[in-house]
Amino acid sequence: MNLKLMLPLLVVSTFLTSCVDRHGVIGANFRLAKDSRLPAWFNNTSDYPNAQLSVEITRYEAIFTDKCKIRINIYSPDGKILKEAIGISWLHPETANHPKREYPLKYPRWSIYRINNTNEVYEHTEAGPILRIVDKPIPKQEQ
After folding, report:
1. Number of structural domains, the chain?
2. Neighbours of 77 (CB within 10 A)
């Protein structure tokens, strides 16, 4: 194969494989704030107190829908995965009604996360990778 053709293919394939895992194309990675409560669907049966656990959230790109696939991993202090859960997320109506493509983004922003038939609202208060679970009402049509 021609070297001029191989180089762009190599660059594109490297990019794609670095942004993809077994669940899809990764759109964003977040962490749950240390002062946030843990997800309601998680039952901590470990020997570690909740305050010592960490939560990582991966959002996958949605192509044909406004609902994104999400993966939430809950880790022990030594880095062991205590629970992995897959669900979906979509914008809370108060965020969905923000003007599209408005920059800088207005905060706070809210998303509804559904895992194991449990809906919760996650709040993004500022630019960056930190989210909090909040007790914001979810409209009936969004449940």
Report:
1. 1
2. 12
CB count within 10 Å of CB 63 equals: 8
Is 8 within a domain?
Answer: no
User: Is the residue at 115 inside a domain?
Assistant: yes
End-to-end CA distance of the chain, in Å? Answer: 53
What is this structure's pTM?
A: 0.81
Tens of pLDDT along 111-138?
Answer: 999 999 999 999 999 999 999 999 999 9
**How many C-alpha atoms does 60 have within 13 Å on its Cβ side?**
17
Domain that holds residue 123: 20-142
User: What is the mean pLDDT of the segment spanning 108-112?
Assistant: 94
Q: Is residue 111 part of a domain?
A: yes
